[in-house]
Amino acid sequence: MVAYFTIAFLAVFLALIPSNKKFGLNCAFLVITTFLAIRYMWGNDYLAYLEMYQNFNTANFDLFDIEKNAALRGGKEYGWVILNRLFGTLHLGFFGMIIALTLFENWVIRRMIIRFVEPKSYWIAIAFYVFTTWFPVDASMMRQYLCVCLYILVVELMTDKKVRGYLFWAIGIIMLGTTFHLSNMITMATLPAFYIHFKNNNKTYILMVGIGMFLFLWNTYGFQYIGSALVQFMIADEGVRSYAVYAGEQGEIANSGLGVYFSYIKLVVLLFILPKIIEKDKQSIILLVIASYFIAAIGTIIPPAGRMVIFFTIWEIILWPWLFKFAKQHPWMFIVILAQIIIMGKEITEFFYSPIWHDRFFEYHTIFSAPTFM
C-alpha cells in the first residue's frame, strides 16, 4: 500500500509541473507505467493469468488455429489464447506480455487525457485515475482492461469522425475486443450515443428529468421484478457462469452506503449539465457515464454483469476535469467535488484493508523478486 500511494502522489505532483504540462504528464505516466509493468503477484487475478499463460503455451498446434485456440477457452475468447501463445512463441514470457500490455494501455489512457482534457487540468485527470479503486483492480482484470482501452480508441473514432469508414473501424475494434473478453460486446450498443446531440432548451430538461426518474425507479423498484429472471438466464449461460468466481470480489468494489447515495447526486448533476455542454463529443461521453448507473443496478443483482460498468466509469477520468471547469461558473459544484474526493479517499483506503483484496494488493512486489523469469 505504501508503494501504491507513493507512486500515486508522485504522479499527481509530476502532472502539476507548470513549465511544460505535457512533459509533466509524460513523467507521470512514466512512473505509473513502470509501477504497473514490473508488478509481480500484485492483484487477485495475477496468479490465475500466469497459470492460464502456462497452460496455453503447452499446446502444440498452429498458433493461429482459431478453432483449437478457442477450445482452450471453452470455445470463446480465442484472441486471449493467441496473444498468450504469441508471447510464448517469441520467448518473451508472461512478464513480457504484462509489460507490453501495460505500455499499450497507458499509452491509450494518456492519449485520452490529451485528447479530452485541457493541459492545465492534466493533474486532475491523473488524480482521478490513480486514487480510485479501479486503478489497482484494472491491473488485476487484464483481459477486460485491455478491452476497455480498445473501447477508448473506439470512442475517439466515433467522436472525431475523421477516419474514412470510422464506423466500420469502430465495429471491427469492438469485435476484436470480444475475442479477449465477451463483456466487450456491450459496447456495441453505445455507438448510437455518438449521433445524439442535446440542445439547451426546456424540452431537453424535461427529457433529463424523465431519464433521471427512470434510472431512479429502475435502481429502486423496477429491477427487483425482473432480477430473478435475469439471474436464472445468466446462470444458465456457461460463458457468464465462468465469471462467477469474481462475483464476491467484484461486490467488494461496490461503493459504501454513502457512496451509493452520492451516486444519485452525481447522476442529477450530470443530467443538469448535459444540455449546457455545447460540444457534441463531451455530451456523448457524459451519456456513457450516465449509462453506468443503469449497468451498476444490474450488477447489484448479477455481480458478473457489474464488471461491465468499467467500460463506462473509465470516462470519469476526464469527466471530473470538466466538472472542475464547470464549477467556476457554478460554485455549488465544488461541494459535489469535495464530497467525491472524500468518498474516493475512504474507498481506496478501505480497499487495501478489505479481506478480499488485502492479501494480493497490500504488499507490492516486482518481477525482480520472482524466483525465475516467466
Q: Helix and strand succession? A: HHHHHHHHHHHHHHHHHHHH
Instruction: Return Rg in Å.
Output: 21 Å
Helix segment count? 20
Strand content: under 5%
> What sort of overall outline do the alpha carbons produce when their principal axes are compared?
globular
Assembly form of the protein? single chain
| Helix content estimate | over 70%
- Average predicted local confidence, pLDDT: 81
* Total beta strands: 0
Distance between the termini: 25 Å
Going by helix content, strand content and strand pairing, the class is mainly alpha
How would you summarize this macromolecular structure in one to three sentences?
With 374 residues, the protein is mainly α. 70% of the residues lie in helices and 0% in strands.
What does this molecule look like?
By secondary structure, this protein is mostly helical. The chain is built from 20 helices and no strands. The chain has helices spanning 2-15, 21-37, 46-56, 66-71, 78-89, 93-116, 122-130, 134-140, 142-160, 166-178, 202-236, 238-241, 247-253, 257-273, 280-301, 303-306, 310-313, 316-327, 333-353, 358-361. It is globular and about 65 Å long. It starts with a helix and ends in a 13-residue tail after the last helix. The model is unreliable at 229-256 (pLDDT under 50).
Topology:
Elements lengths: L1 H14 L5 H17 L8 H11 L9 H6 L6 H12 L3 H24 L5 H9 L3 H7 L1 H19 L5 H13 L23 H35 L1 H4 L5 H7 L3 H17 L6 H22 L1 H4 L3 H4 L2 H12 L5 H21 L4 H4 L13
Keywords:
single chain; 374 residues; mainly alpha; 20 helices
